[in-house]
Specification:
By secondary structure, the chain is an alpha/beta fold. Helices cover 28% and strands 21% of the residues. The chain is built from 12 helices and 17 strands. Strands 1, 2, 3, 4, 5, 6, 7, 8 and 9 form a 9-stranded mixed beta sheet that branches. Strands 11-10-12-15-14-16 form a 6-stranded mixed beta sheet. The chain has a two-stranded antiparallel ribbon with strand order 13-17. Helix 1 links the parallel strand 1 and strand 2. The longest helix has 15 residues.
Amino acid sequence: MSPAAPAAPSGVPLPGNRWDTLADVWPAEPPLVSVIVAHYRQPDELARTLAALRRQDHPDDRLQIIVADDGSPEPPAVPDGVELVRQADDGFRLAAVRNLGARRARGDVLVFLDADTAPEPAFVRELTRLPALAPDCVTVGRRRHADLRDVDLDRLAESAAERALPEPAWLTDAYRRSGDLLHADDRSYRHVIGAVIACSRTMFDATGGFDESFTAYGGEDWEWTYRAWLQGAVLAHVPAAIAWHDGPDAAGRDDGALAHRNAEAIRLADLIPVAGSAGRGLRSGRVDIAVAPPPDATPGQRFVSLDSALAALPAANAAAWPAESATGRGAADAPSDAAFDRVRVSIELLRPVRVDGEDLAAAIDRLDTEQLGSLTLLGAEGEPLVRLTATRARAREERWGRDDLFPRAQAAAPGIRPLADEPDVAAYLGGWG
């Protein structure tokens, strides 16, 4: 007997990235929220942040506060009602300590906050609204900057604003251009700041948590968000969810900021293989676009089909699924090879074909631009030859048991021809046939 499919999560399944369909909608009752405060050797800042959390307008009995300590020499002091989890001091392990806090969490919605970032009273309520309604949502608040010494917590917004520091223009511009991430794309992970994010337990578990191989400052939030995006996350910026960071933005400091940003970009270039993030010549070790061979093909047909398809994608980090999947199974059934754990687009060759021209590359552009779930390319007789599927669409639709959350389309592809007979591989490779 086959195992039963997992039950769909409770809440609203959203199409595309359309969090705006829930504008002005609030949960029938406040969600159970777990706030995970990452901390290392910042006792004064932590005390201020915990005091600000106690001033939230979210009900106390629906709010769990967890301090996740990354091995401070002295255990941090936490007030009654705040839970403390600690790990050994084995270097900078922010990703690991966030996961540690998440394991203690009982909430349906998780909020990640840094110890030096004090939230305004509406922060939790505003940031958790969308994940509580639609568990695919990953929300990012507005992190503002100020000198918070002697700030008046009873009037945090006004007191901090009086000593506000510049917000990073690149981030505020990105939110403005994208309509607060309503028009998110495959590179919008860069606009989700780990110090002020929220997600459902459903989404956090779908990602497997933060990557604990990150042992230096920065990047773990972007890498996690990209994997959440591939798992069907709906990204949203919530400007009303304001938290104040003590001091300037790290990118604006004269302490080797460029060298740090370069190290972060180089690390992410290998982990996020999408164009614009991955290297151009130094290719990522992960595959962005995976091509599955046609079923019931001869070795010659399989070779020409895969080779011509991959040759049509020279600018992409593309590869064929591992050899085990060359038995005719579709891309969705391909084995979970480590290099293929970030595949963004799956291409299924539905029958033996030869790919010439730019039809395949243009199809990927259309899949991205129109945020399609799938795009089927048709031959001259209208027969389906190739199907492209967005991983994030498949993940979300499988989670909900739905097939209508992303649009599907078809398009003619005159540059893709079916291979009815056995091809001459030598002639194909040599260019004379």
